[in-house]
Amino acid sequence: MQALFSPVSLVFVLQALLLQAIWLYLGRISRNRYLVDIMTFQAPSSKLSRYYHWRVTSFEHAFGEGIAYLLILLASLYGLGFALFDFEQVNGAFLIVLFVVLLSFLSALQHAWRVKEVVDSRSRISIGIQIATDKIGVTRMMVDDLYSQGAMGDGRTWFALFQLAQRQDQVGWTVRDVLLEKGKEEDTRFQSQDSESSSISSSKDGGPDIS
C-alpha cells in the first residue's frame, strides 16, 4: 500500500498526465487544422493536418498510433524513474505503471473505435452513392436530412462526407458538388434573413413621430 503513495508513484502519475495532455492537445490542434482543410475542399496543407488525415484513415492506423503512444509512455516512465530513483523504488511502483498503461490503452482503443465508426460510415455512404442511379439526388437527400437535424446532426456522417469530397472520382465529385451547392443555398438564405431583419428594423425606426 505504501508504494501507491511513494514519491516514485507520484512522479509516474504526473508524467503520465503530462504526456496524455500533450497527446490530446496535439490531436485537437491537428483535428482543427484538418477540418479547416477538408471543409474548404483542400488537401491537408500542413504536417499536423496530414498526420490527422493518416490517423483517421483506418482503424489500423489509429490503433497503431495508440500502441506507439503506450511504448513512448513506458519508455518515459521508466527512463525518468531510473534517472531519479533507485531500482527497488521503481520496481515497487509496478502496479502504478500497470494502472496508468491500462487507462492509456483503453483511451487509445476508444479513439481507434471511433475512427472505425467513421471509416464504416464513409464506406456505407460511398457504396450507397456508387450503386444509386441518381447519385446527385441521393447525396442531396442525405445532406438535406443532416441539415434538418440541426446542431444534433450526426457529426461522423458530416466528417465522412467531407472526407469523401476529397476523392478524385465520381463519388468525390458528386459529394463536393452537392456540398458546395448546399453551402451557397445556406449563404443565400442567411443573406435574405439579414435583409429582412434590416428592413423590419428600419421600418420601425422610420415610423411617424407623433409629438
Task: Give an account of the 3D structure.
This protein has 211 residues and is mainly α. The protein has a domain at 2-117. It contains 8 helices and no strands. It has helices at 7-39, 47-55, 59-84, 87-92, 94-131, 135-148, 155-164, 170-205. Mean pLDDT is 84; it is low at 206-211.
Structural key phrases:
disordered C terminus, mainly alpha, single chain, 211 residues
Unreliably modeled segments: 206-211
Please bin the fraction of helical residues.
over 70%
Count the E strands: 0
Mean of all residue-level pLDDT scores: 84
State the end-to-end CA separation.
Answer: 85 Å
Give the topology string: H per helix, E per strand: HHHHHHHH
Proportion of residues in β-strands: under 5%
Largest sheet descriptor: none
Structural class: mainly alpha
Number of helices: 8
| 3D shape | elongated
Gyration radius over CA: 25 Å
Short description:
This protein has helices at 7-39, 47-55, 59-84, 87-92, 94-131, 135-148, 155-164, 170-205.
Summarize the topology.
Elements: H1 7-39, H2 47-55, H3 59-84, H4 87-92, H5 94-131, H6 135-148, H7 155-164, H8 170-205
Helix pairs in contact: 1-2, 1-3, 1-5, 3-5, 5-6, 5-7, 6-8
